[in-house]
Structure formats: structure tokens, C-alpha cells
Amino acid sequence: MREKSRLRNLVRDAFFFAILGCTSTAFSADETSRAELALRVASLEQSELTNLLAQKLQNYVNEIAHKKNRVAMPRTRVTLDLQRKIAYLDLGSDYILEPGTYISATLEEELQQISQGLDWDLGPNPPIHNYEFLFGGKKLLDLFPEEKRLTEEAARAAVSRLGPVVVAAAHGDYYHHGFKDWRPQRSTVNGITEDYLSPIYAAELAYWMGKRSNKTAALPRGPIGGNHGESGRPWNDMATKYRIEQLLPNRPDIWDSLPTSTDNLRNYHEDIRSRPLYANELNAEGLLHLHTNSHDTNPLIRGMRVYHAKGREEQKSLAESVLCSMTEIVHAASGYESFPIASFPHEENHGENRLAKMPSIIVETAYHTNPDDARALLDPAFRTASMKGVEKGYRLFSEGKKCKPFQLSKVIDDPVPLGNFIPVDAHYEGNPEFEATLVTELIECPDDMQCWTAKLPLDKLPSPVRFFIDCGSSPTPREHRMQVKIIDADNVDTGWEPYTVSCPASWDRNVRSAFNERTYVAHSEAP
User: Fold this and answer.
1) Are residues 49 and 170 in the same domain?
2) Which among 242, 323, 319 has a CA at the least distance from the CA of 287?
3) pLDDT digits (tens, 9 = 90+) for 143-172
4) Are 173 and 312 within one domain?
5) Is the CB of residue 126 less than 8 Å from the CB of residue 38?
6) Which of 398, 433, 468 is the last residue of a domain?
7) Rounded distance, CA 394 to CA 134, Å?
8) Does position 525 have pLDDT exceeding 70, yes or no?
9) Who wins on pLDDT, 413 or 391?
10) Does the CA dihedral 12-129-102-196 come out positive or negative?
11) Are residues 366 and 243 in the same domain?
12) Could you tell me how far CA 390 lies from the centroid of its own chain?
């Protein structure tokens, strides 16, 4: 009996090893392999998935503990709620040795490294959407009473939201009290320093917010000339907290919010907190944090993510709208049709969102630690597409509209012709960006006809769009199989939808049929 049990365990362990081997750094991140991994994970029983996550979680925690030179490794435990798609990850009561009075940015980053690693290990469309960290059975905020108070206060705050949309570029130079020097918050990887790239993305987003949403965007790290006095560094490179100190010198509660801290990284932690506190002061209607992502141990991890705070339904709705719109526009950009984008927003305990009194999200545009993502981040076309997506998602959210796939639901020709013209109604769903283009053509062109592909401009016509087909002349009635699609201003394409046009017999013109030569979109019921 014991021998059978031992063999069963060996088989199980070998199975898990095979799964884990597929997610090691030697694993190829191509789409086929990732899809195969997702199928294998989907086939696991709950107990098997729990054991898989438990092993991976312990590995990640061991790596973190090793970097901190900890002798005793925290023991972890995993519990799943598959109905809610949540994994509860208990890191033990000794994971946080000295909680202190506030949640540090470094702790937030450690937990994000774990959740992102596990998310990647489960493959695309994983059975787990969010991870809840526990510490000896206690939630994170329960270890930090003051942070919990501030978080709950922000969640129930009723603000006017008459101010601008704050577009917060991540990080920037800060003073390190340990090394006694000024430095960026992020290391340079694959030619990218997040601190200096994020303001470029913020400027792009601010442009589209003004052009398409007619929104005023406030940029705490917006471009200004000159140097920061104390550091001598260009103002454009400085972290948000120093810019706010210049703007609001009498509000140290915003830019010097941890005055009693002795942590060498206290200015780094204060910078994270200064962004939502500044937005609160402005009564901002929304807060959009722009980051590039990273992972310390696995350069294969890549893709686009959006984060919101736990328990903030309004933030979740904004995150869903932005992620949906970014997916639509980025995948319409040439070369980025299969760029990996999360299929759902993630919730985490980031201070940037927790302390905000308005809808606030973090957009992690791509991983600068992944070579392919890094190349995308440096591409102006990718930058424009991704920031157009953020703008559109925010606009739909603020207008109370739902982000839906842009597609044709049905195409119907009117059986009653108007002379030689056949009316056709194309019904579409979604939120196209105008001016759009309607394209229609014959699927096969008969030998006795001249056929054209018609490209017709659309300027904010509601669904359905009516256009007219000129049947030309023919001694007998004919049916023609055709197809139509609409392409919006961001190159988002509905895809082809077939339809049939029934042309009556006509001797009105003694000419060869010129099908589609006079096809056009009508603003009225008659050509």
C-alpha cells in the first residue's frame, strides 16, 4: 500500500515537474507553446492546481528571502476559490518582520513580482484572475492600521471631481538617503529607463485626451525647462514629489508625507504616495498612472496590464474599459496584431490607486525587461496606439458607454430598389473612431461586368449605415454575392461580412454593367 502511494506521488511530482519545466526561463514564449501550457493548466484538478501554485509560490518567496539574506525561509500556503477565480496566498506571519506604519513601495513591488510570475506560469487566460496575499491569516491592510484608515477614507470620499484628469508619469530621479546621491528609481534594461520614458507616454496621452475627449490633462511631470536646484538635474527627470514641492511648497503633507520615516528609500516611498494625494488636492475627475513593467527573474514575461484597487468597483469599471480599448487599438496597429494583452484587469494593493479618491488605474504598457516588449515601447507607432487606447477607454467610461468589439452584426439589402440603386443597411456594434471608411466589393466578379472595390467615407453615422449599390443595366434579374467591412480612424476593422444584392432587370441604359462604380453612402433615404 505504501509502495503504491509512493509511486502515485512520484508520478504526480513528475507531472508537476513537466508543467513547471514549461515555465522555466528555458521555455520558449511563442504563442503556440503558451497556448499548449494554458490547455495543460486548464486540465488540472483543483488539488493539482493548488499544489502547482504552492510549489511556484514557495520558489518565488525563497528567491526574495535569499536576496534579503534571510536564513529562515517563510513557509507559504495556497487556498483556491475557483468560483471567484481567486488564489489566497499566505506568506506566513514572519514574511513582514517589522510592519512599520505604512506599506512601502518595495513591499508592493515584491508582491506584484510574485503575482505576475504566477500569472505567467499559468499561461494565457488563466483559471486564477487575482491573488489575495495573507500573512499568517491576516490581510495586508490589517497589519497597517493607519494605511487601512486612509484607504477606507479614500474609498468612501465624495469629491466634486471638477478638476482635470491627472496623467501621472511613473518614477523619476530621487534622493537615496543610504547612498547619499540622486538616482533614477528604475535601472536601465534593454535600453530603457522607465523614469525617463514614462513622461513621453504621458505627453502622448495628454495630447489625445485634449484632441478627442476635450479633457484638460494635468501632468505632474510635464515638460518644463531648467534644473532642480538641490540636485542640479533637469526638472524633466525629477520625480513627482519634487515637482509638487515646487508647485505647493506649503503642502508637505502631499510631497513629504512620511516625515518620521528613517528608511533610506523614504523619498521613493513618498513619491509613490504624492501622485494620488496631489490628484485628491486637485479634485481630479480621474487619475491615470503610466508605467512600463518589469520582472526581476524572468525576462520572458511580457504583455500589457491594467491595475485597480481592491474593492473599488468604479476603478474596476475604468480598468475594464481602458484594457478593452487598448486591446482594440493596439491589435489594429501594424506589427502588433498579436501583442500579448491581459484579458482582464488585475487588482492589487498599490498605494497609487488605494489613496486616490477618484477613479484611478495603473497602466503597465509593456515589460521593459522583455526584449520584444522593449522594442515595442521604443516604437512611436506602439506608443500612439496604446495611448489612444487609454484615452478611448477613459472617454467611454466617463460617458457611461460600454467598450464593445467593433463588428458588423448584420447586412440587409432593401428588396425595393430606387431606380437602378439598391439600398443596403450595414448594422454595426461598438464605438468606432470617425472618420471611418466603408469598403464593399463583389466576392466574385462575373465575366460580363466591370467590378470595383468601393471605399466610402463615414463621418459619425449612427448604426445602421445605409449605402447604395448601382446595379447598372441587365436584361434579366441577377443576384450578387458581396461583402462589406468598416475600418475606423484607428484602423480598427470590423472584418468582412457577406451579403446578397438582388438586382432587377433593367433596360434603362444601353451600357455594360459597372457594378459599384457609383456605390456610395447616403445621408438621406434617396440617392
Assistant:
1) no
2) 319
3) 999 999 999 999 998 667 789 999 999 999
4) yes
5) yes
6) 398
7) 32
8) no
9) 391
10) positive
11) yes
12) 8
Closest CA to 115 of 241, 316, 293, 282: 293
Same domain assignment for residues 73 and 130: yes
- Using CA atoms, how far residue 61 sits from 112, 470, 475, in Å, is 12, 69, 80
Q: In which element (H, E) is residue 344 found? A: none
pLDDT, one tens digit per residue, over 215-240 is 999 999 988 999 999 999 999 999 99
Amino acid at 214: N
Query: Does residue 379 share a domain with residue 428?
Result: no
Distance of CA 83 to the CA centre of its chain: 24
Cα gap 193→294, rounded to integer Å: 11
Asked if residue 356 and residue 432 are part of one domain, the reply reads no
Handedness of CA 398, 402, 403, 407 (dihedral sign): negative
Same domain, 138 and 225: no
Backbone phi and psi for residue 166, each to the nearest 5 degrees, phi listed first? -85, 125
Instruction: Read off the pLDDT of residues 243-274 as tens digits, 9 standing for 90 and up.
Output: 999 999 999 999 999 999 999 999 999 999 99
**Mean pLDDT, the chain, integer:** 88
The answer on pLDDT for 96 being more than 50 is yes
Here the cell at position 181 is 546621491
Alpha helices, DSSP H only, in 344-439?
Answer: 351-354, 371-377, 380-398
Expressed as residue numbers, the domain containing 263 is 157-398
Per-residue pLDDT, averaged over 398-423, amounts to 86
The predicted pLDDT at position 513 comes to 39
Chain centroid to Cα 320, Å, comes to 8
pLDDT at 193: 98
Q: How many domains are there within the chain?
A: 3
CATH number reported for the structural domain that contains residue 436 in this entry: 2.60.40.10
From the list 363, 155, 166, the residue with the least C-alpha distance to 283 is 166
Q: With contact defined as beta carbons under 8 Å apart, do 460 and 434 qualify?
A: yes
Residue pointed to by grid coordinates 446595379: 471
* Residue 148 covered by a domain: no
Are 327 and 246 in the same domain? yes
Query: Alpha-carbon Rg of the chain, whole angstroms?
Result: 28
Q: How far apart are CA 296 and CA 298, in angstroms?
A: 6
